[in-house]
Fold each of these.
Amino acid sequence: MYDVARPTPGNALEETSRIPVLPAGPGPAGGPPHRSAPAGPDYTAIQASPEFVSLRRRFRGFVFPLSFAFFAWYMTYVLLAAYAHDFMSRKVFGEVNVAILLGLGQFVSTALITWLYLRYARRRLDPRVAELRARAGLAEEKGR
């Protein structure tokens, strides 16, 4: 019969696609390995803090309703364009019809929502973000 050649096993990394865990080195006086504290802020603790939870609630309280409202407005426009041809082709003035005005309204509403969010974030979110960063020991980013 045919002799099927099997690949020769290499090292353990090739077989398991895993990197073995290496000890951090011996601790003081040859004791257990010493693990250093992670550098930087404790993001898990920050995320669990009441201040962060409040900030996230404020953010979601603004973004979710406005996103839903814009999506409903957009889908209304799409459905009207697909099924209400007579309404959408009704002339408003000159050659401008309802569809053109509603389409331009999509751009205007997008700009308005952007402006509203920037204003809201500047007044309600950014000061709280600055407080969280200060408590966590993070430096304020320049240019923001």
Note: The chain has a mean pLDDT of 82.
Amino acid sequence: MRFAVERMTVADIPRVIEIERLAYSTPWPPSAYRKELQDNPLAHYIIVRDTHAQVPARAMGPAESAPKRPFPLSLLPSRTAPVGTPELASTIAFAGLWLMMDEAHITTIAVHPDYRGRGIGELMLATLIGIAYDIHARNVTLEVRVSNIVAQNLYRKYGFREAGTRRRYYSDNHEDALIMWTDDLESPAYRSEFLRLHTALVARLRAQDPD
């Protein structure tokens, strides 16, 4: 599988910040991600790597000396670069959620501009929903800009519905946010539709692997 999903680690933060600055006008500071990864047991963050992308060799620090843990519910096989050798993949996207009581709140999804339109955002959304199942969340919720129709359509595809509006939610331009929620993840109808979408997504991503 060309696109591999891994748990985010502290070593990933510089690249995560780089992607976020390309994707958003008000990125989080590196210290915020460090705190999320080190001090928040309810936070779950992932990255996506393009396993066919070559990146320059560099020295590995202590945070990179151990293999990364795959996310709990494996929708796709993960890949870890061999310890002590140059990385053979580059990070192209990241996402995260918090578990709040029995709700999984998606905090961020970002894709490098060069990889948009290739199913990477959908891969991360499906992975986060898979994590929500694994941590026994009943629903998934998020905020999305009222102007971001592309993202809204993806969320609706995965069963999110509008549940309200947060006025002037975004600090850069005071745009409103739609609050969106899924139905009960454990309902037979939702689980069946999620599995159907997952199967179609895997087929789409496999089709991007070169012969």
Note: The chain has one domain: 3-206.
